[in-house]
Amino acid sequence: MADDKKFAGYICTGCGIGERLDAGQLETTATRDGKMQSCRQHEMLCSSEGVQLIRDDIANEGVTHVMIAACSRRAKVEAFNFTDVALARANLREGVIWVRPDTDENRETTQEMADDYIRMACAEVKFMTKPSSSGEQQLNKNILVVGGGVTGMTAALEASAAGYPVHLVEKSAALGGHVAGYYKSIPTRSPYAEPADSGVAQMIADIEARDNITVHLNSTLAKTSGAPGRFEVEIATESGATSNESFGAIIQATGFKVYDPSGLTQFAYDKSADIVTNEELEALAKAANGGPIKRPSDGKQVTAVAFVQNVGQTSREKDHLPYHSGIGDLIAIKQAMYFKELNGDCDTTILFDNLRTPGAPGEDFYRAGQQKMVTFSKGQVSEIVPGDSLEVKFKDLILNEDTSMLADLVVLDVGMVPNTGPDPYAQLALAEAENEEERAEAEAILANAPPSILNLDYRQGTDLPQLKYGFTDSHFICFPYETRRTGIYAAGPQRRPMDIRQACDDAAGATMKAIQAAENAGQGRAAHPRVGDLSFPRFRKEGCTQCKRCTVECPFGAINEDEQRYPLFNEARCRRCGTCMGACPVRVISFENYSVDTVGQQIKNVDIPDEFDEKPRILVLACENDAYPALDQAAMSGVEINPWARVIPVRCLGSVNLSWITDSLNNGFDGIVLMGCQKGDDYQCHFVKGSEMGLERMSKVGDTLQTLNLEPERVASYEVAITDVTRAPKLINDMAETVERVGMSPFKF
């Protein structure tokens, strides 16, 4: 180690640690085994006095590397925020004393756990480098909003109010989107009894009055390149003129398209002008201008109207939507009230199979519709017969009989289809197709793809990745606005079907994230989920084999390739997941505070008793975002964990390098448990694909085990949620039982 490095350990004796453990022995372990140049004890390290003790040593004693042995690294994060040093933490509270019984017979093994965690933390910090900002930091406070509907306008107004200049790009000739054509909207305030003004006109006026909002109408994005803090965007207009602008972050709020029911022949949508969608009815109501609503075919005042709900939704049939848009029934209630307001004694019937009235208006708005004499009939429509009067045939689900009704106008409740660009992974698959079959499959997906919205200059495609049914991908639990493209946020119905109020709330959340991304980019810090992390990936060019695994497996498009096909890291796009590090077969990728060595040395510094001690060792690599918090919660609940386990949090299961597995087995570990997040379409992995890729790599560990003549059950991989408070410890305890059954590792002998 270089002479300018100074290592110091700090052991907290508070929260029962001093009563359960021999702090003096821990101090000896830190200095003798861990090679800390100094080690201090304190009765409450997280107190102002304890924190100041560490700060004084940093300032006056030249301490550059700090090892804190106290509570979980997830606790007291703000107190132990020493950004100017390398920092490692040993979890003695949640990881040791709270998961072990307080009895004399368990005292020895509890102390052994604590000693090992001290050794591990000391080894980790010794192989850390003091984090430093990347050279890419650039503060650009300009925010780009794509889409001039309610969602986009809300985002623009929120960013503007926070003092951030905004460019609002809208492809049409006017702001307002779909809602600009609405007569009225679903009420957003109690008592939820009447349709309300949409507020669009006022929003447009507010936009026009803001000096720091620039509106681009009849405009699209011709090209988007760069990263948070330095996006370069070419804005093109219908006339052919272009302008180039720079932005710190981008919000995509491109909304939705109305589902086209023309393919559903039973509803005869294309056979009669008097069969309209719920959006087309808004135009009729607005055109009435306070007078009676008239049917399109002959201008006759509507005296009977039927609303047919859930048209082409929640069905796996061809040309149907497999999901429900959620708000269609509230829209029908609102529109039924139009007829009661404008058309006098109009016979108004809502035909539904399942009535959904979510959100704040919910039951109150439904009751208001009943009070206005709107008829709600539980029926399943089988056919609409065109004519001077439209015959709606349906099965009465209450009486269980076929019946029909006549109407002047039929309104179809059609769903929302997200307005997103082509699937970027299909684009990538087409570009990298290795045979005709792969090419044909990708071409089939892209055959009916919409035009690009962002035109991203990314090797991974031109637009935001999608999850299900074309909706923009985002982490629906933890990070609802974030996409796989760092610094670009999605808001509104392109993420999921939502009403105006939900879209406005969504826009406000996305704006906050965009501002955070721009500000963090100015400081060279990660935006999410490791907010504030200064580290970024580095690699040794001389060891790189140009295998492209890092560029292909990065979920966020943070790695390109230079002219010589070496990885080209785009630090500002990086989420610090370490997936590239786990993918690298030659171990040339690392972070300053997280590397193959920081984890590998922890594994090597666990004290492995010989076979005569009959004390197995189980390595647990736990995702720091779900599994590790679950273990912390288990500790708080008093759930016992086997004393042979040694838990190492990893940034993501995707960051797990196979060398850690082979090294731990060679060093005499008897079992290994890997805990990642849920993968698949309903993934809960904070890094989208990290857990899936990590689990895929681990599925091939069997070959290694066979080579070493070890039982395959010695290595187990699991998907663990943050709520698995009981299950997570059980998986560790189950491995202990497995080790007891198959015997200890032969590498101990």
Write up this protein.
The protein is α/β, with parallel strands linked by helices and about 750 residues long. The chain folds into four domains: about 1-130, 3-Layer(aba) Sandwich (Rossmann fold); about 145-255 and about 465-525, FAD/NAD(P)-binding domain (3-Layer(bba) Sandwich); about 260-415, FAD/NAD(P)-binding domain (3-Layer(bba) Sandwich); about 610-749, Rossmann fold. Helix content is about 30%, strand content about 20%. It is built from 21 helices and 29 strands. The strands form eight sheets. A seven-stranded mixed β-sheet has the order 13-19-14-15-16-17-18. A hairpin with a 4-residue loop joins β17 and β18. The two termini are about 35 Å apart. The relative contact order is 0.10. The mean pLDDT is about 90.
Query: What oligomerization state is this entry in?
Result: single chain
Overall mean pLDDT score?
92
Runs with pLDDT <50, length 5+? none
Q: Kindly, what is the distance between the CA atoms of the first and last residues, rounded to a whole number of angstroms? A: 33 Å
Number of continuous helical runs: 21
Strand residue content: 15-25%
The CATH architecture of the largest domain is 3-Layer(bba) Sandwich
Total domain modules: 4
Radius of gyration: 31 Å
Number of strands: 29
Structural class: alpha/beta
- CATH class placement of the largest domain: Alpha Beta
| Strand order of the biggest β-sheet | 13-19-14-15-16-17-18
Within CATH, the superfamily of the largest domain carries the name: FAD/NAD(P)-binding domain
In this structure, how is the largest beta sheet organized? 7 strands, mixed
The CATH topology of the largest domain corresponds to FAD/NAD(P)-binding domain
Instruction: Indicate the percent of residues in helices.
Output: 25-40%
Gross geometry: elongated
